[in-house]
């Protein structure tokens, strides 16, 4: 009897899960598996299956030898170096500010979050105008401060800076709202006790807030890392990978190779290399986590 | 409290899903839009079918891009007229914007859903023909006594001949000519451009016409790959030599690119190379429309855009240096190799490209120039003004340059990207023109050797 009931419950669970699982298999797992196969082939999207040649590891070798391809990997790391530290520090700062009890706080919180829910396409187009080298608002404001702004999106050096800046502007709301949730999870008892012991605000921040916030911080850093490796929308719209390839990223190259140059095999190899990079970095983060992340219980 | 293992699992799952998410995202977008579009198309078709229940017509699928952006209704009336004449054929057509066209078509073909008949520009025609995806029309043409290739402009017709096989029929063509603002010329008392002009006369006039204080430029041409291959041809250069070897860093090419840059940076008769306003889409067309450019190299498909300009304008042949050269873009329609409706497809191709009815509709709507040889048919086109000197459109064909697709059509996209990247570097003065073209020569040679 008991066994029968268990069996029925399992069946019910299975039946309810089936549609979702089928979708997952058909639209996620099968394409993933087939992209492994494709990555070892020279498939150009147009040839019949019978005309596909398997060419071993040469697509993977090309990921690291093709200049456009390894430059795009390098560019993603440049993006990361500019983006990660700034968004983490600014995010904490903003979260602390948003954690205050002042009038209209809900309004501030909403304002900070609005860029997050705005479409990347709209954001990119607007910022392209704002960053216009001759008639943009950004350079006008800089000129008020006596600074001659660069032609942001037409310069090999400043284009990436602009992309990083806009990405931070867009993502900072997400980061600070998550950190805010983490902050609110920290019990006031610690601060009361610290005040009684005469701890300064600075040491309260370093010895209470940051350690207790570290699980949330870890989450934010990991998610941001994974997202940064996949920078695409803003690049495609703001600079189209230019000028002279200086903002070309891995996903942008995957897109071009797959759908514009008909090199599906190479694109599949590139995306698996990207997966490998993200996987390794995530594992590395997990290892490092033990050194600095504090779990309360 | 959040459990450590829970976070680990979550992150692992996110890493896996998001790493592949971007690809799948593109795929599913493409698919969903195609299903939407095709359901629209088929509901149209079924509505038509219900009106004529007697016959059992065959349905052919047609994919097009040139009708996008304003000519959808012209296409619709052409298709309806065709269906009225051929009740046994239904055309299930779909209009896709040019920017997404190649991607969409590629996806359809790779999914085994190739349209029976579709539109291709010359460059893509070479690629698709090279991949053996197109139906060889030669036997059908020789069997069809009612069809005469000389109906078409020979150049445009032959553009769709691949290695001796006719694999498509030309539908329309376009080129690029020199547009000029007559009012600005009159104000400065400068003679209008004519066929005898070379770069030197263009520069002389531009220097007189340019008025930096009022933001008026003497002459304008974009700085990109298509302009590059035409301008070097005007100086006797080229991307490939006769046997298909790249000759990108020839002295003639270097001088031509230097001239393109000098117009802006040395003589200041064109917007600066790093002018951000002119990097916005259509900024050049808008500037001409608002009377800020005296001479500009634009495509003839922009005629209707300037119809209501507040000044008088006309067109002329482009000035060249050692010789004349003009862009030539041919659009044609081709049949899929796997089509089961070759007969119906052929009827549609003939009707759509050369039937008097469809040609007249095309001209009346100002869609494009039909590639027919009979000047009497084109008379209606010549008469549409502005511009008055409309015959220039045809005169330009005497000195056309085709897109330099080269010996490996499938590499066309990469070839463009490789050259563009170097042109960008030269444009910002990062490296000299010679260095840039040396680099471009090397990367194109590498590309073709693989």
TrEMBL record, chain A:
InterPro entries named among the record's database cross-references: ABC_transporter_permease, MetI-like, MetI-like_sf
GO terms under cellular component: plasma membrane
Classification via CDD domains: TM_PBP2
UniProt KW Transmembrane keyword: yes
Domain (ABC transmembrane type-1) ranges: 73-285
Family membership: Belongs to the binding-protein-dependent transport system permease family.
Name of protein: Carbohydrate ABC transporter membrane protein 1 (CUT1 family)
UniProtKB/TrEMBL annotation, chain B:
Pfam families hit by this protein: SBP_bac_1 (PF01547)
SUPFAM superfamilies linked to this entry: Periplasmic binding protein-like II
Segments for region (Disordered): 24-54
Signal sequence, start to end: 1-19
UniProt cross-references to InterPro entries, sorted A to Z: Bact_solute-bd_prot1, SBP
PROSITE patterns documented for this protein: PROKAR_LIPOPROTEIN
Low complexity composition-biased segments: 24-48
Classification via CDD domains: PBP2_TMBP_like (cd13585)
Alphabetically ordered keywords of this record: Cell membrane, Lipoprotein, Membrane, Palmitate, Signal
Lineage: superkingdom: Bacteria
UniProt protein name: Carbohydrate ABC transporter substrate-binding protein (CUT1 family)
Taxonomic source organism: Paenibacillus taihuensis
């Amino acid at each position: 009897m008991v066994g029968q009931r268990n069996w029925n419950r399992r069946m019910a669970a299975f039946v309810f899960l089936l549609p979702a699982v089928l979708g997952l298999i058909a639209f996620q797992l099968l394409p993933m598996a087939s992209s492994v196969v494709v990555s070892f082939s020279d498939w150009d999207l147009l040839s019949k299956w019978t005309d596909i040649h398997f060419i071993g590891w040469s697509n993977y070798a090309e990921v690291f030898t093709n200049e456009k391809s390894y430059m795009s990997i390098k560019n993603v790391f440049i993006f990361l170096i500019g983006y990660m530290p700034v968004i983490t520090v600014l995010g904490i700062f903003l979260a602390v500010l948003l954690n205050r009890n002042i009038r209209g706080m809900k309004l501030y919180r909403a304002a900070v979050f609005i860029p997050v829910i705005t479409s990347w396409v709209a954001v990119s187009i607007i910022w392209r105008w704002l960053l216009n080298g001759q008639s943009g608002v950004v350079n006008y404001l800089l000129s008020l401060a006596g600074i001659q702004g660069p032609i942001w999106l037409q310069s090999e050096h400043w284009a990436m800076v602009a992309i990083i800046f806009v990405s931070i502007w867009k993502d900072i709301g997400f980061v600070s709202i998550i950190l805010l949730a983490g902050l609110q999870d920290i019990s006031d008892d610690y601060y009361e006790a610290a005040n009684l012991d005469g701890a300064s605000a600075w040491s309260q921040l370093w010895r209470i807030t940051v350690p207790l916030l570290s699980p949330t911080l870890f989450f934010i850093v990991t998610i941001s890392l994974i997202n940064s490796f996949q920078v695409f929308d803003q690049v495609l719209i703001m600079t189209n990978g230019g000028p002279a390839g200086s903002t070309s990223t891995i996903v942008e190259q995957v897109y071009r190779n797959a759908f514009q140059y008909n090199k599906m095999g190479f694109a599949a190899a590139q995306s698996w290399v990207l997966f490998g990079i993200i996987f390794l970095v995530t594992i590395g983060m997990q290892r490092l986590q033990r050194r600095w992340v504090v779990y309360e219980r | 409290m959040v459990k450590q293992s829970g976070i680990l699992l979550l992150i692992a799952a996110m890493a896996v899903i998001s790493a592949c998410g971007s690809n799948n995202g593109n795929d599913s977008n493409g698919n969903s839009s195609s299903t939407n579009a095709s359901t629209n198309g088929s509901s149209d078709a079924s509505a038509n079918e219900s009106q004529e229940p007697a016959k059992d017509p065959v349905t052919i699928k047609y994919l097009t891009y040139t009708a996008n952006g304003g000519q959808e209704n012209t296409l619709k009336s052409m298709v309806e007229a065709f269906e009225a004449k051929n009740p046994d054929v239904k055309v299930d057509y779909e209009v896709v914007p040019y920017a997404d066209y190649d991607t969409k078509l590629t996806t359809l073909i790779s999914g085994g859903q190739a349209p029976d008949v579709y539109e291709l520009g010359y460059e893509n025609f070479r690629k698709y023909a090279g991949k053996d995806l197109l139906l060889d029309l030669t036997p059908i043409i020789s069997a069809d006594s009612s069809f005469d290739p000389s109906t078409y402009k020979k150049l445009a017709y032959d553009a769709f001949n691949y290695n001796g096989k006719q694999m498509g029929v030309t539908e329309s063509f376009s080129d690029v000519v020199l547009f000029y603002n007559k009012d600005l010329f009159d104000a400065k008392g400068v003679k209008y451009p004519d066929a005898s002009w070379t770069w030197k006369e263009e520069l002389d006039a531009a220097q007189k016409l340019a008025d930096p204080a009022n933001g008026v430029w003497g002459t304008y041409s974009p700085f990109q790959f298509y302009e590059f291959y035409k301008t070097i041809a005007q100086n006797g250069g080229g991307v490939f030599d006769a046997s298909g070897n790249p000759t990108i860093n020839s002295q003639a090419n270097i001088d031509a690119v230097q001239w393109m840059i000098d117009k802006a940076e040395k003589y200041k008769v064109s917007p600066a190379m790093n002018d951000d306003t002119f990097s916005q889409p259509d900024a050049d067309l808008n500037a001409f429309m608002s009377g800020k450019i005296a001479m500009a190299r634009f495509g003839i498909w922009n005629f209707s855009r300037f119809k209501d300009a507040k000044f008088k304008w006309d067109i002329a042949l482009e000035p060249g240096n050692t010789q004349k050269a003009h862009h030539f873009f041919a659009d044609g329609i081709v049949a899929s190799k796997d089509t089961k409706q070759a007969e119906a497809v052929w009827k549609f191709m003939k009707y759509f490209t050369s039937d008097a009815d469809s040609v007249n509709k095309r001209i009346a709507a100002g869609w494009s120039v039909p590639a027919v040889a009979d000047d009497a048919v084109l008379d209606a086109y010549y008469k549409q003004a502005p511009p008055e000197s409309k015959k220039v459109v045809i005169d330009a064909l005497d000195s056309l340059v085709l897109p330099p697709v080269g010996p490996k059509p499938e590499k066309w996209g990469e070839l463009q990207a490789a050259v563009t990247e170097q042109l960008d570097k030269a444009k910002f003065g990062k490296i000299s023109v010679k260095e840039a073209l040396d680099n471009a020569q090397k990367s194109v040679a590498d590309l073709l050797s693989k």
